[in-house]
Amino acid sequence: MRRANHRIRTRLHQARAVTTLPITGQKLATRYCEYIRLNAEKSTMETTSQRPHIADPYVIVAARHGTMLANSNDIYIGQALIQYGEYCEEETKFILRWIDRPGAVVEVGANIGSQTVALARAAKAVSSEAIAIEPQPFVFQNLCANLALNGLDNVTAWPYACGRHQGSIWLAQPDYQKCGNFGGVSVCSEHTPSALKVPCTRLDDLIDGRQVRLLKVDVEGYELAVLQGATEILSNSRPILYVENDRVEQSENLIRFLWSRGYFLWWHITPLYSPHNFMGVKENRYAGLSSFNMIGLPMELRMSLRGWEEITDASVHPLSKWKK
């Protein structure tokens, strides 16, 4: 597997000679996917003797936290695993420090499990379970594959959306056979012919009284609805929270809701690229791109996070300041 990853890195170095354009965003997607297609036959011939053929668009990667099945058409999560052997590793390292005692680790918006695998292993080390929730059916299949590849028997995976009420929601449905950001799929504001209907449940109902140590929510602007359906968890378990907050127009309501539930909040902003990535690749293909999350600690813990900005003004978002 290491030799296969070495070949991937070698091909990427060869591909860099093709163009001198900055490799970011859609340019990254277009160039890399074209490269994958042009070299698919050659790659299959080279690796057939070492591993079973994996159908397009998938690639098996020996990554930092385990063996991962990655979609090469995914311009962020999939390609980060292929190129760097990790995705948002600074996030993952930060979250892992909080899994230090028994209690379920719940991940809403688990995608393909790029972080789930590491979180589940940490949960098992403290005799706890992980619960991974991902509503996109195609992506959910990939999640389950990665859980199986890594032999994680302490994880329950659910193909649901989570929200304020029980019922159904509609998701935008991308073409997974073409380049795209499959971690950026949002709930549709209205039903369209191309939207996909998926079941939606309250997180309180799904967790059903389990003690929760950590709750991670990354659902592309639907975070408030998820948390409004998890009020029993917030009241009874008082978990550590790690919540994405990158929608400026929705930020204030999200912050004020968590304040009202008795949480202090800090910004946790991390670049997508790490110079210390698992593959040792020096080129930053995600230059200028960061993830915007909040860490939430119950007020009764009276803890403070050194080195991170505490949120004291709900109307101020870092992205607004940076744009100015």
Task: List the main descriptive attributes of the protein structure presented here.
disordered N terminus; 324 residues; three-stranded mixed β-sheet; 11 helices; globular; seven-stranded mixed β-sheet; alpha/beta; Rossmann fold; 21% strand
Mean pLDDT score: 87
Number of domains: 1
* Number of separate helices: 11
How large a portion of the residues is in β-strands, by DSSP E?
Answer: 15-25%
Shape-level CATH architecture: 3-Layer(aba) Sandwich
Shape: globular
Low-confidence stretches: 1-25, 39-50
Helix-and-strand structural type: alpha/beta
Largest sheet: 7 strands, mixed
Number of strands: 12
CATH superfamily: Vaccinia Virus protein VP39
Q: Helical content, roughly?
A: 25-40%
* Strand ordering within the main sheet: 5-4-3-9-10-12-11
CATH fold label: Rossmann fold
Could you give the order of the helices and strands? HHEEHHEHEHEEEEHEHHEHEEH
In angstroms, what is the radius of gyration? 20 Å
CA distance, first residue to last residue: 46 Å
Given this structure, which CATH class is correct? Alpha Beta
Provide a quick synopsis of the model.
By secondary structure, the chain is α/β, with parallel strands linked by helices. It has helices at residues 2-16, 25-47, 77-84, 89-96, 116-125, 137-149, 203-207, 223-228, 231-236, 248-260, 318-323; strands at 58-63, 66-71, 104-108, 130-133, 155-158, 161-162, 167-171, 196-201, 212-217, 240-244, 263-271, 290-298.
What's the structural blueprint in terms of helices and strands?
Blueprint lengths: L1 H15 L8 H23 L10 E6 L2 E6 L5 H8 L4 H8 L7 E5 L7 H10 L4 E4 L3 H13 L5 E4 L2 E2 L4 E5 L24 E6 L1 H5 L4 E6 L5 H6 L2 H6 L3 E5 L3 H13 L2 E9 L18 E9 L19 H6 L1
Parallel strand pairs: 3-4, 3-9, 4-5, 6-8, 9-10
Antiparallel strand pairs: 1-2, 7-8, 10-12, 11-12
